[in-house]
């Protein structure tokens, strides 16, 4: 296994871009993976591509998935409206932007790629705020997935899982990440974030604190 080469799931948002900056600071050779699945925020892939180039990743792969897998999610299905939070209230429990087993699908593909390329470390940018509304971003989910991978010596790491969005933003600034070159909105119009979805709510609060 190549110890210095790692795989990173790169979305184009603040968290994964900040993690990319940290991995590069640690002199890791990063193979970045992004996914296209007819998501409403498909513009994230443009930001992922720009940051992959900016941070000089070894390779950036965009994997296309069948959106039929994820029609249960308002993040994909155009007949479903994403929840909005104009009054600043935070939702309790699972958000309708949840994409059924998306992170399991993403990480399963990353594991296949890792084993095929003799890479033993995969990184994801889950944070503590994600865990509140998305079960597949939790420490329990990560632990159970790592139990499955034990036979192959491949490990999945989520170094921000105990950090709030506010703390990730502080780290981003420390690493000189240009936050204007990231996008975290679930339903942006062109390059403009909606300011109403859960992702915008959490990001806006983190930037103000």
Key structural traits:
209 residues, Rossmann fold, 5 strands
Strand and helix order: EHEHEHEHHEHH
How can the largest sheet be summarized? 5 strands, parallel
Q: Within the largest sheet, what's the order of strands?
A: 3-2-1-4-5
Q: Could you tell me the strand content as a percent range?
A: 5-15%
CATH superfamily placement: HUPs
CATH architectural arrangement = 3-Layer(aba) Sandwich
Spans where pLDDT lies below 50 across 5 or more residues:
none
Explain this structure.
With 209 residues, this protein is α/β, with parallel strands linked by helices. It has a single domain (5-208), classed as Rossmann fold (3-Layer(aba) Sandwich), CATH 3.40.50. Helix content is 35%, strand content 12%. It has seven helices and five strands; from the N terminus they run βαβαβαβααβαα. Strand 1 (5-9), helix 1 and strand 2 form a beta-alpha-beta unit. The longest helix is centred in the middle third of the chain and has 15 residues, at 102-116. The radius of gyration is 16 Å and the shape is globular.
Q: What's the quick description here?
A:
Helices cover 35% and strands 12% of the residues. With 209 residues, the protein is an alpha/beta fold. A 5-stranded parallel beta sheet has the order 3-2-1-4-5, with helices on both faces.
Write the layout of secondary structure elements.
Blueprint: E1 5-9, H1 14-25, E2 29-36, H2 44-54, E3 59-64, H3 102-116, E4 121-123, H4 130-133, H5 139-148, E5 155-157, H6 165-174, H7 198-208
Parallel strand pairs: 1-2, 1-4, 2-3, 4-5
Helix pairs in contact: 1-6, 6-7
